[in-house]
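Thread: quick sanity check before group meeting

JM: Hey all, I'm pulling together slides for Thursday and realized we never actually wrote out the predicted structure for the chain we discussed last week. Dropping the sequence here so it's in one place. If anyone has concerns about the input, flag it before I start.
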Amino acid sequence: MSMAEKTLTPKLIKKLWAAFILLVLLMGASYILITNYFATKHNQETTQRLNADVANHVIAEKFQNDSPFLEDGSVNKELFGDLMHDMMAVNQGIEVYLLNDVGEILYSVVLDHDAGAPTKSVSLAPIKTFIDAKGKEFVLGDDPINLNTQKIFSAAPYSVDGRNGYVYIVLAGKKFQEVSETLMGQYFAKLGTGATVLAMLFTALLGLLAIWFLTKNLRLITSTVRKFQEGDLDARIENPNKSDIAIFANSFNEMADTIVDNMDKMKSVDLLRRELIANVSHDLRTPLAILKGYIETLQMKSDTLTASEKEEYLQITHDNVDRLSKLINQLFEYSKLEAEQVVPVKEPFSITELSYDLIAKFNVLAAKKDISLQLQNPKENCMVFADVSLVERALQNLIENAIKYTETNGTVTLSLEKKGKNIEINITDTGTGIPVNEQPFIFDRYKQVDKSPKKQGSGLGLAIVKKIMELHDTTITVLSKPKEGSSFIFNLPSYQQA
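JM (edit): ok, ran it. Output follows.
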């Protein structure tokens, strides 16, 4: 037995075995009861059909020569005694009753007729039905001895000496019933024993085949799950939709895919975390080393340095402090964005006014490099629905990045354009451009195209922009050619004033 089958045996297999045994035993009991019912009914119908004319024969043979009544109007008991003796010699289960025209029992050998005893009667409805059908219809009548039961009978009408009534013959009397019940009990005891033995054999055979068939797919799924548990991450249930338990099979495959995908993401996150630590360590080490070197120089050579040298060293120290501060702020900002701790507060605002403010803010930085910073926008005011602080942060990073990579006497242009229900924002520069093989990766954290000392940066600016765009359910694209400049384009939903 395989490991999967061992796993299934203690609970599922035992429950299936119990269910099959109970089912087969119930089927066996039902078979015995149904067989008993139909066998009894068949036997009764056969007996009644064969003896349907007995009552007519009695009237024709016995009442033709001898009247069933004496001159004083009482019943001829001697006649009935001889009649019962003759008939019981042939069939001891027969009981003969003489009825009047309303169904009252005038006489029968098997009943007591003491003075003062209440007169018994039987229903005439089944008797009339039997007579009308000429004995060809299966009809049960009242049992005079026990009126709560019904039995097969033969009946015929008589008309003697001005008296009318019926001869009512019960074909399965008390004695017949006793013998029949004894034999039937023995018969069904034997049948029950045989049926039980056969049921057990068939249960064992059927159970083995059925459990094997029913648990085939479950064993396959269990085996696949165990392989996955043991480290085979490629283990999947083949053709899950053809399985008897397709929902479970599909659920496992989807779960396995999700687990593997999450594991890949965790590996990717772990790799990026290591790269982040390595890059942060490198970026922090450089300005710290510069700071340490110039501070030590100021401490050791304070008396020998000129005022202009001291001013230069302090300015370098100040610039590196700014650089450290900016790097730490960007790391903190990116960490919050990546951890999804930033929830955009969207509201309508003028992207036109925000663009004017940013152009004015960066004009000073652009002027230091003799770069022309321009704004192109439609005459009407452009309103968007977004988070104003996050959009401002994204535009700052893009404009700063464009100025950094644009050579002297170059141009950086921020343009706004209405396109359907959106406002397209485009930041274009005439800088060095981006190599084609680098363009798919420029929004990755710590990805820098130009790693020259003059263009040092944390590499987080564009990664932050990408995260901000994702928070606004939009994307940013780059169009660039080496030595011809670059364009960064994204769209924000236009706000339609009522």
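AS: nice. The longest helix spans residues 246-300. Confidence is low (pLDDT under 50) at residues 1-9, 447-458.
JM: adding both to the slides.
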